[in-house]
Each structure stands twice: as C-alpha cells, then as structure tokens.
Amino acid sequence: MGVEGCTKCIKYVLFVFNFIFWLAGGIILGVALWLRHDSQTTNILYLQLGDKQAPNTFYVGIYILIAVGAVMMFVGFLGCYGAIQESQCLLGTFFTCLVILFACEVAAGIWGFVNKDQIAKDVKQFYDQAFQQALMAESETNNGKAVVKTFHETLDCCGPDNAIGVITPLWREDLCPKKDSVMKTILEFSNCHKKIDELFSGKLYLIGIAAIVVAVIMIFEMILSMVLCCGIRNSSVY
C-alpha cells in the first residue's frame, strides 16, 4: 500500500529536492573541472622552478571537489529512486550517505578555511624565488625567467610587493608585458602578490557559495527522508 496525504506530498517534495541535489552535484563537478583546467591556475600551478614544483595545495582541494560532485550525483539519483519506489532500504542508505557526505563537506570546509591563506602564500613564495633568480645571472641556467614571465603574462602584473617590484616594469622590459608608454606602465601594472591574492580569493569565494547552498539542501533532505521513511513504515502497518 502506498503512502497517502501529507506523506505522499513529502515523497514528491523529496524527489524534487533530490533532483536539485543531483543538479547541484553536477554543477560542483563542472565548476571543479573548470577550476582544474582554468588557464590562469594551470599556467601557474604547473610551473617548475629547477627541481621545485609549484605548490599543489589548491589542486588537492579541487580533487576533493571533483569527488564530492560525483558522489553527490550518485546520492541524488539514489534519493530520487528511493522516494519514487517508497523503499525504506534505499531511503535509509540515502540518509546514511547524506550524513557521511555532510561530514566530509564540513571537514573539507574546515580544511579550506584553514588553508585559504596558505595557498596564496605558498604561490607568492614560489613567485618570489623565481623572481630573485630571474634578476640574477644564474637565471641563464634555470627557468626562473620563464616562470616569472608566465606569472606576469597570465595575471597581467609585474614585480613583487616591494620597492623593487614597483620599478621592475621600468627597467626590466624583458620580464614584464609591454605597454604602449611609460605612463601606462606605471599606472596599469599591479604587483603580482596582489593579483595572486585576488586569483585565489575569487576561486574560494565561488566554492564557498556552492558549499553553503549544498549544505542547506542536504539538511532538508535528511529531515524529509526520515519523515518519509517513518510514513512508509506506518502505512505498511495498515
């Protein structure tokens, strides 16, 4: 015997929420893949300075997001099917998966919050090392100059956040993208530390919004799945 009344309404509400959850998983997976292959981040984070690789903390977070998006799509499908079939077993499995996924999201959020400044800091340190090598004679024997030029061209910046960085565009045209005039060079170039901060804070802002929306949806789904499960159990008694 199928559920009736308010429980039947909850069944279809849960189905709609799970469909939205499935779509949200697809969006997170899409955003994560976009961040993974975005030209700004890949140009910078694939760089190598001698035998030192650029910091990969950012990519660790991206791979976590890819996994979360894929799992969300699977769990969303499980919830949709369980709600339509009125299966206590599937709904119980769905609830368990949601609890685990919610715990993982909270853990990932804490990890991201703790490391949000460290990601940009590591990249800025990597840039500063490359910049120092590019200014020295040893830059001929390593790829410091190539690394610095990649930063400058990708982020449209020039120089670190210090006095040397301010005058670099004026005396090292081989390191900085060329402007039409000296005045444009002075006015339009930002230091690369500022641009790196903007790059990663912008990416993390998008991730944070997506995570909050998904967390709210998951809480509603956990409540609705338990209510529907109880309704199915009660209806089977009569």
UniProtKB/TrEMBL annotation:
Transmembrane feature ranges: 12-35, 56-84, 90-114, 204-228
PROSITE patterns from the UniProt entry: TM4_1 (PS00421)
Gene Ontology annotations for the cellular component aspect, listed alphabetically: basolateral plasma membrane
Topological relation to the membrane, as annotated: Multi-pass membrane protein
Similarity comment text for this entry: Belongs to the tetraspanin (TM4SF) family.
Gene behind the chain: Cd81
Example of a GO MF term: lipid binding
Intracellular or extracellular location(s): Basolateral cell membrane; Membrane
A GO BP annotation: regulation of cell population proliferation
Lineage: Eukaryota, Metazoa, Chordata, Craniata, Vertebrata
Record-annotated disulphide pairs: C157-C192, C158-C176
Pfam families registered for this protein in UniProt: Tetraspanin (PF00335)
The protein's name: Tetraspanin
Principal location: membrane
Record's keyword terms, sorted: Adaptive immunity, Cell membrane, Disulfide bond, Immunity, Lipid-binding, Membrane, Transmembrane, Transmembrane helix
